[in-house]
Amino acid sequence: MIDLPFSFTIPLPAVIPSRIDNHIKRTLSALKGQFLDEPAFNKMLLEEDKLIYEVYEIKRPEVEGELLMGISIVHPGKVGNEFFMTKGHFHSVIETSEIYYTLKGEGYMVMETPEGETSVEPLSPGKVLYVPPRWAHRSVCTSRQEDLVTFFAYPGNAGHDYGTIEKTGFRKLVVDGEKGPEIIDNPRIN
Ligand code: S6P
Ligand code: ZN
Questions:
Q1: What are the chain's domains?
Q2: Ligand 2 centroid to 62 CA: how many Å?
Q3: Residue 180: is it exposed, middle or buried by C-beta count within 10 angstroms (0-12/13-18/19+)?
Q4: How many angstroms does the Cα of residue 160 sit away from the middle of ligand 2?
């Protein structure tokens, strides 16, 4: 049977979609090993397993030809001097891409390829970011008070590979420097 077209709204400025099939909440503990300042991470975790980011998903069959859409919300905050961020991943089907459209807040998309190329693109309201095939991606919120909110769409068959990037971490980190957000090399990678 053929699917019927459908629509939903993302009312601004609230940005919670009118249709939600799945709501993912990731707390600090899900990001273990990812932040550079481990003592700061452990101290923060002892106090509270804080909510770092959320994803509202619109479900579609996870097959080629479909598009998976949703809203990603990274809350403001830092672990040590590193801004709150998503875990980040390669797509399991690595030759698949993704589109992000920023609705609210400021931040960066930190990206890299398996060959070690890197790219860190600023995100701000109205900006469309294209993540080409083969690029791992992680969103980072650098707003002090506001959430970083993005709409995303990616192929239904893409899948998520978290393990590969988790082993070493991303090559670039976004930290709060003397003059504001700074992109630095990850010292854990030579
Ligand atoms: C999925 C897409 C986003 C992320 C979301 C959370 O391909 O890139 O929906 O899932 O931003 O990030 P992560 O790294 O925890 O999946
Ligand atoms: Zn993705």
A1: 22-185 (2.60.120.10)
A2: 13
A3: exposed
A4: 7
